[in-house]
Amino acid sequence: KSCSSNAPDAALSLLKTLLRSCKEEQRAIFYERREKTMASSQVAKKHFATHATPRGSANDMVESASIAIKASLRLYNQNKTATQLSSLKAILKFLQKVEKKPSDIRARRLQMSNIVVKKFVTKVKGGLELMIACGFDRENVGEKKEQLIMKEVSRDLVQLGISLVQKKLDDIKSGVVSDPAPAATAMKVRCPCGFWGSSDQEGLCSICYRKKCGGPGTAVSLEVKRTASPAKKLDWKRKLKKASTKLRALHRFFLGVRQESRLIQKNKKRCFQCNKKVGYLGIECRCLFVFCDKHRFPHSHKCKFDYKKLHQCLLKKENKIVKHSKINKIE
Q1: 77: which DSSP letter?
Q2: Rounded to whole angstroms, how far apart are CA atoms 128 and 117?
């Protein structure tokens, strides 16, 4: 009886000790985690304090970048409108990719040997300067290899570049010239002959400059050539078409096609004799009509082609007349 009465008290005491030990363990884990989070937050604060740039210097950087971007966009006015539009659209795509995925290294790295980069960035006046102003750096990779890479992404700089490029595109489409480049004024200079010359003409007057270039008619002839070159490019197609039609007519004439009562076969996918559908398997006779397998022979479709004349012409060409000259030529 004494044992049975003491058993529940012992169980209760055991449960109480277990609960205490669990609570102590939970407290210990909680304090450890708290200490770790505190330490990590202190490290982050120190890192931000050392690496963060002050607001004034960031504003200065954006201002200097905007000046550089505007200067590079002024250089674009030297290109044609079509090249300006295509180049600016390509650069806008590059910057938008960087803005969407700043962590993607492939968007931030452009090979200079790439066809798109060559055509729309390096070969365009102001294209390379614009990319450098937007945060890209020119870097050598191995022998004879270069690339444009954005090492550190500045969202403010990328957004500024996108806005300015978009504005320039809108101005070009609407026909407005924004920030035009200052025009180079020609200075008056004294020519050695005594007349006034120009700095554009190497300090010579118009007469001396023409003499130096090679006569008075050189400038006029060059202008005529420049104006005549596009017309020539279009003219050769017309001439070729004319010549091909003439050759075809001569070919038909020499083969002996009688064109007095000539019928024209409009649908060459059917037999001219029985109107059977032949498609691409039709056989074209020398009388220039398409026939089926049954009517392909000359006797089956009453061919009007002069085979006799054809063979006579071939014999004349192949068997030349061999005869000696009757009169001796005096050389």
Answers
A1: G
A2: 9
> Count of CB atoms within 10 A of residue 151's CB?
10
- When the pLDDT of each residue in the chain is averaged and rounded to a whole number, the result is 77
**Encoding tokens for residue 270?**
């059917």
Give me the torsion for CA of 227, 118, 126, 128, rounded to 10°.
Answer: -170
Beta carbons of 286 and 256 less than 8 angstroms apart: no
Pairing of strands 146-149, 188-190: unpaired
With beta carbons less than 8 A apart as the criterion, state whether 97 and 107 touch.
Answer: yes
Cα–Cα distance measured from residue 101 to residue 10, given in angstroms and rounded to the nearest whole number: 66
pLDDT at 48 over 50: no
Is residue 130 pLDDT above 70, yes or no?
A: yes
How far apart, in whole angstroms, are the C-alpha atoms of residue 141 and residue 147? Answer: 7
Q: Which 8-state DSSP code applies to residue 120?
A: I
290: CB partners within 8 A, 6+ apart: 265, 268, 269, 270, 271, 272, 278, 282, 283, 284
Asked if residue 161 lies in contact with residue 134, where contact means CB atoms within 8 angstroms, the answer is yes
Handedness of CA 212, 214, 217, 219 (dihedral sign): negative
Distance CA 289, CA 305 (A): 11
